[in-house]
Structures are given as C-alpha cells and as structure tokens.
Amino acid sequence: MGQLPTIDEYLRVKNKLLRWVRPTGDITRWTVKQIRSHLKNPDSSCPDFVTRFLQARDKYPEIMNEEQLEEYANTNVSAGSDTTAIILRSLVYEILVHPDAYTRFMAEIKATLKARPQDEHYDDPIRWSEGLKMPFFQACIKECLRYHPALGQLIPRDVPEGGVEIAGKLLPEGTVVGCNAWTIHRDKDLYGEDADEWRPDRWLDKDVEQVRRMENLSFAFGGGSRLCIGKNIAMLELTKFITEFFRRYEVELVDPKRWKLRPGWLVVQTGLDVRLNPRDPQSLLE
Ligand code: HEM
User: What is the domain range of residue 98?
Assistant: First the structure.
C-alpha cells in the first residue's frame, strides 16, 4: 500500500501548489511581510514562531534554508487558520442553538467581569487566565472539538519497525494506519449513549477518571509526536475570541436550518449567518 502524506507534507505540497497558482496569494504575502519585519527587529521581546524559525535557520543552515523558512511560516498559517475558524464557527452556532448553554456562558462572562478589582479597566479584553476560570465555557470548547473535529479524514501513521499488534491483528512495519476523529469522538463506549448529542456537561462530570479518559482520547489535535504544534495557541484564540465576541455583541442566528457541513479533509460549515447588535457595555455589570 502506498504511503499517505503526513499533514505537514500535505500542507507543504499544498502551499507550493498555491504559490504556483497564485504566486502572490494573501497568505504568502502576509507571511513574507512578517519575516521581513522580524529580520528588521531580530531582538523581539516577544519571540514567536518566526523568531524560532529564524534562530533555527542560523543554527541549522543545512536543514533550514530561506525557502523552508517561508514554507514553515506559510504552513503554520494554513494549518492554523481554517482549523481554528471551524471550531470558532462551531462554538458560535452551538451556543446560539442551545439557549441554556447561552445563558450559562453569559453568566460566566458577567461573573468574570464583576470579579475584576474596582480599579481595573472594565473595557480590557477578557484575559486567557480569566477564560480558563470559566468552567462551563471551557467545557463548550472541549465539546465543540469533540463534536465537530476540524479534520474530517484519517490522520495517517506508518507502523514502525517490527510491526505492531492492534486489536488482536498483527500489522507489518510500513503499513499505513490511522484514526478519524469523527469516528473516535462518537464512540458510545467512551462518550456514552448520548455521544451524538452536543452536551458540554459531559466534561464537567464528577467522575474525574471518565473525564480524564475522554481528554486523553480526544483526537481533535491529533496525537503522539505529530500532535498539532499550534494546540495551545488555538485554545487561547478560541477562549479569547468567543468571550469577547459575545461580550461585545448580542448575536442572533438568522436561520439555524441554513447550517450545513461540507465533509472533506476539513469539515467546513456554511450558513452561520447572524445579526449583530453592539451590546451596552454596562448591561453585563447589572
Ligand atoms: C482549533 C484549531 C486547530 C485544530 C483543530 C488543529 C488540528 C490539527 C491536527 C488534527 C493536526 C494533525 C496532527 C497529527 O498528525 O496527529 C495538526 C497538525 C498541525 N497543526 Fe494544527 N490545529 C489547529 C490549530 C493550529 C494552529 C493555530 C497552528 C499554528 C500556529 C497549527 C499548526 C499545525 C502544524 C504545523 C501541524 C503539523 C504538525 C506536524 O506534522 O508535526 N495548528 N493540527
């Protein structure tokens, strides 16, 4: 059986093709701009991926050249944009179609703002540390990652030297095996009879062993040595964006029936049409 590419290889080939078709595509233009700005200010007080790539280029010139620098930066943008957008969309939709979840989530935002010391600027964005102390909202994020994984296909791995026994079957080395998060995440043995329902409370269950098991087997970011390198950034983006979005706007879904999923390598949704009304900033302090 031919070997399937890793996501990293897939994205690199995709980026190369994209650059060929659209040599000055938005992503490439943007990443080149970031690289140039890093080159102008190499001693950033806030090192990011590009800073690390530049350090790697200086340290390992035989592995990392100019072209790879650009490719890696592009890969990060490709790998981190649609995936994050899918989970953001899923969060907005599920919170809106579950009025009880909406009420509990907004109550956590209110409590977070009210808990701020008097002298702290009310208008400051909700911080990562504050978002982490919103248990129901964190459960909503985990549930969206479970219920609607961004990747819709198998994530391939090669069986290593010596082969491996999986579920009583011996697979010889070099065999390509893989799991699909959509299958794992709907496993009733693991998530219970209601695995097909969106129910954030499963992550707040008193049975800590069961919650740990679900967390360990969560496959939304893949697993093992090729686990998504942007996982922590993604969790930060999801936490900060969604809290600010609902804090600043009253959000109303135009028509839940418009929501559709397009299965593929990425399971992209359409139909999340909403009406936005800016919220009175004081209303959340009452
Ligand atoms: C909610 C958002 C995200 C989801 C659901 C997601 C999901 C995934 C998955 C499933 C993989 C495959 C892992 C595997 O093969 O086991 C992956 C790999 C990767 N992700 Fe993410 N990702 C997200 C955000 C990001 C962000 C923000 C970045 C960059 C800043 C990023 C960069 C990458 C890269 C570079 C890889 C390839 C890693 C490798 O092959 O070693 N991802 N991601």
Answer: 7-285
